[in-house]
Each structure stands twice: as C-alpha cells, then as structure tokens.
Fold this protein.
Amino acid sequence: FADEKRGGNDDSPVGFWAEMSTLTSDAGGSRSDRADLWKGAWIVFRVHPVIGAGPANFGPAANVLLRNGELGGNYVDPSVIYDRALHSSYLQILSELGAVGVLLFGFLLFDFFPRNAAMRRPRVVAAWRWASGGRYDLRLLSYGLEAGMIGFLGPAFFYNQLNEPWLYSLLIVNGLLHDLSMRTERAAIASATVGSPALAG
C-alpha cells in the first residue's frame, strides 16, 4: 500500500515513489548499503567462481570470507551480513551459483525469447486462430509473457527475486504455450492436407 513501510522496516521510506527513489539517492543509506553488499558478492564469487557458494549461501559465505573492515557501512563487522539479501538477482546468481549458474540463467533467457517469437509466426497464429475459434489472440499472449519477463529482468538489478514464483511461472507458461502452439500448427497442417482450410487467413 502507498502509505505503508516496506516489510515492516521502520527505516524504509513511506510510499512507492519514495521507496523507488532509494535506487538513485542515498536516503537512509540505501544506495551505499547496496554497494557494500555488491562488493561482498564479488568477493564471494572470486573465492567460489565455478559453482558459487551454494543457493541462499551468500550471507553465510560472506560472513566467513570477509575480514573486519573489508566492507564499509553496516558491514564493518562481517557477522552482520549473515542473513542479508543482496538486492540484485544477478549478483545473487553470480555469488551463489557461480559461472555455471550464470550460463544456465543465460540459457533460460536465450530459450525464452526465441520461443516467444516463434509463437508470433503467421502460420502458427493462423493455426491457433483455427483451433481456438479466434477466442484467444496468441500474439497478445506472447507479448504478455515477453512484457512480464522484461518486467522481471529490470527490477532484478536491484531486488532479490529468485525465491519468488514470477520467473519460474513465466518460464513454465512460455514452455507450455510454445509446445501447445507448435502442436496446433502441426495439427492444422495435417488438417489442411485433407482438404480443410486450416491455415487460411
């Protein structure tokens, strides 16, 4: 809600736009706090570059690896970082899953966008329209998934979102819809070969 503080945090600014302003301003030390955490993520990655420190292990790993005073702000004493979130899904992947995790995440995105584009091919759209009776616009469904993914990837620079269902929901729906649309195209082609104008229009 617009007049509530995020997560019951008394130091959080009130209101959506006030909260968003902490991305570029240092109100309440938010920007410098984020910079310290990101520096810690790079340190953890350099020690565990291949497979990372393990899922949800940034804090525990940083607590062990960092020396007193290596980070500034609230983290001069590294024990404070134990249960802190990184405020970046990308650095969370880098530090917790390493280079292997980065490559796998890149593959998921490389797979997602071409699948979405394939669902907008004219023959696929025509087959979908034939099978659904024109009730569902496959192009709009595809664009909706794409907008959702872009909406996830942008804020992921500044927020931990890997433990939320959004990314996985988008990937699952994309995979299912792509598979269904390809099956529909094949069925329409088979129908057309026996005289039905399945791919007309």
About this structure: The chain has a mean pLDDT of 84. The first helix runs from residue 16 to 21. Helices lie at 16-21, 30-47, 58-65, 89-118, 122-132, 138-153, 166-193. The chain has seven helices and no strands.
